[in-house]
């Protein structure tokens, strides 16, 4: 390897932590770093918030650790970020509020008030967003009602990615994919939706400028920090949302490819070329790049359910890896089902979902049985989201990724219900690789290597039993499809 390889610096700003990697044109991560910062959740108020300054410090920390001592030429910097974040800034760009995230449910009442307008004006098709307290539009309605003085005086409403780029590059810009997750973007025109802004009395000047994911927003060293390997001609791209970028890395440029991510939350996605087609009201549609879209569904009940199981069912010293081993040769109880909706979901179907809990619970069941059923419920819910996106292309098996995919038990369930499903190789981070691919494509290098390296899942033991159990679970837990007219 050359002592000075050319790389793209990919950064991912998540809700639980920040990550960065220097990635070469052949997909090799020669250096990486991560830092946990977490968020605070108030179950009484529904608030789920972070300190924007703490997040920025975490981003700077992973950049410094990732680039320190690396003899590399950074050609491009791309930033990915979790969707649906919101922080209000003053005229000097300083936070007036904490950074609220997708788990925030304070705007539930405002969503109910907004529902009639949302459906009457066909805003689902215009914005691509589902009706949910998770989206910044709903939280802006909450601020307008609950804190009207703050709503009147804030200067900018931005995402964590916009805020980070403001601090590092001096550019207040939002790429189309993150902007689409706000509920404020017309995804067809790729402009701020004037009718939505008029409804909430928000001047577009109080929002970031819009950019395509591969638009250059800055050159050279970031402001206020020195990065090794960055030259005056290093370009900073607008970047994109973590979900669409993970999908991009998992599926390449196929027009009808599907991906499944099970991490803290879970999501199912499929590529599309049309933002206008009638869709299930629980399905969102966001720009993937300058000419394609990604449609999908997301759930707040992914790894969060596993965390709840670990806290509730087992001693604090229990290791998740040990439970995974214990499940290796354990058959599933066909009568024990788990409905995984512990946390409020992001769509308008809440009244049609059953309450979270176990069905078929008997006195002979032990915590490991409950844990196994909970894993099944999380995976079944993810599979059901994938099915809601429309019939799959049988020639293109879906690709799975996410932290929960490290569990053998999860892979067995998935490969039983979806024969042929593939996963990304161990150690490949879909979001960071998608962000890097964005940069290399801008530089004229085609980096479609992740899909080629995707591994076939092992055959699942008890496949037919899991397929039958999924059918029973779906009858009890899945919300009906409601198509937008």
Which key features would you list for this structure?
single chain; 485 residues; alpha/beta; Nucleotidyltransferase, domain 5; 2 domains; seven-stranded mixed sheet; 25 strands
Could you characterize what this model shows?
This protein is of the alpha/beta class and 485 residues long. It folds into two domains: 233 residues, Nucleotidyltransferase, domain 5 (2-Layer Sandwich), CATH 3.30.420.40; 234 residues, ATPase, nucleotide binding domain (Nucleotidyltransferase, domain 5, 2-Layer Sandwich), CATH 3.30.420.40. Helix content is 34%, strand content 22%. The protein has 16 helices and 25 strands. Strands 1, 2, 3, 6, 14, 15 and 16 form a seven-stranded mixed beta sheet that branches. A hairpin with a 5-residue loop joins strand 2 and strand 3. Helix 9 crosses helix 14. The longest helix is centred in the C-terminal third of the chain and has 21 residues. The N and C termini lie far apart (56 Å).
């Amino acid at each position: 390897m050359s002592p000075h390889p050319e790389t793209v610096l990919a950064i991912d700003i998540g809700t639980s932590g920040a990550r960065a990697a220097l990635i070469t044109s052949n997909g090799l991560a020669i250096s990486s770093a991560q830092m946990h910062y977490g968020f605070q959740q108030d179950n009484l108020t529904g608030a789920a918030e972070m300190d924007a300054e703490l997040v920025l410090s975490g981003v700077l920390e992973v950049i410094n650790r990732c680039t320190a001592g690396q003899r590399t030429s950074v050609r491009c910097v791309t930033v990915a970020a979790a969707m649906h974040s919101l922080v209000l800034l003053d005229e000097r760009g300083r936070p007036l509020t904490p950074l609220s995230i997708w788990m925030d449910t304070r705007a539930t009442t405002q969503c109910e008030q907004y529902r009639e307008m949302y459906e009457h004006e066909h805003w689902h098709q215009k914005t691509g967003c589902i009706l949910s307290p998770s989206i910044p539009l709903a939280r802006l309605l909450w601020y307008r009602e609950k804190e009207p003085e703050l709503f009147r005086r804030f200067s900018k409403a931005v995402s964590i990615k916009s805020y980070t780029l403001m601090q590092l590059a001096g550019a207040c810009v939002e790429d189309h994919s993150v902007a689409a997750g706000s509920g404020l973007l017309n995804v067809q025109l790729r402009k701020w939706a004037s009718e939505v802004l008029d409804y909430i009395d928000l001047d577009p000047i109080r929002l970031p400028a819009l950019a395509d994911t591969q638009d250059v927003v800055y050159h050279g060293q970031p402001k206020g920090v020195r990065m090794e390997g960055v030259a005056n001609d290093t370009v900073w791209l607008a970047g994109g949302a973590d979900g669409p970028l993970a999908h991009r890395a998992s599926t390449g440029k196929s027009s009808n490819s599907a991906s499944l991510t099970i991490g803290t939350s879970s999501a199912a996605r499929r590529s599309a070329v049309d933002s206008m087609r009638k869709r299930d009201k629980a399905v969102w549609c966001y720009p993937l790049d300058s000419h394609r879209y990604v449609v999908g569904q997301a759930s707040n009940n992914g790894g969060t359910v596993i965390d709840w199981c670990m806290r509730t069912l087992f001693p604090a010293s229990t290791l998740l890896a040990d439970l995974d081993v214990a499940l290796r040769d354990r058959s599933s109880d066909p009568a024990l089902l788990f409905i995984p909706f512990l946390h409020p979901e992001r769509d308008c179907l809440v009244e049609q979902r059953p309450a979270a809990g176990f069905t078929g619970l008997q006195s002979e069941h032990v915590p490991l049985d409950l844990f196994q059923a909970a894993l099944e419920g999380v995976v079944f819910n993810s599979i059901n989201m994938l099915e809601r996106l429309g019939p799959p292309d049988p020639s293109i098996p879906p690709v799975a990724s996410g932290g929960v995919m490290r569990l053998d038990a999860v892979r067995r369930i998935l490969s039983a219900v979806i024969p042929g499903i593939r996963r990304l190789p161990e150690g490949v981070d879909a979001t960071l690789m998608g962000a890097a691919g964005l940069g290399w494509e801008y530089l004229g290098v085609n980096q479609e290597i992740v899909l080629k390296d995707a591994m076939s899942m092992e055959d699942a033991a008890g496949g037919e039993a899991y397929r039958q159990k999924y059918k029973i679970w779906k009858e009890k837990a899945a919300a009906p499809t409601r198509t937008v007219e």
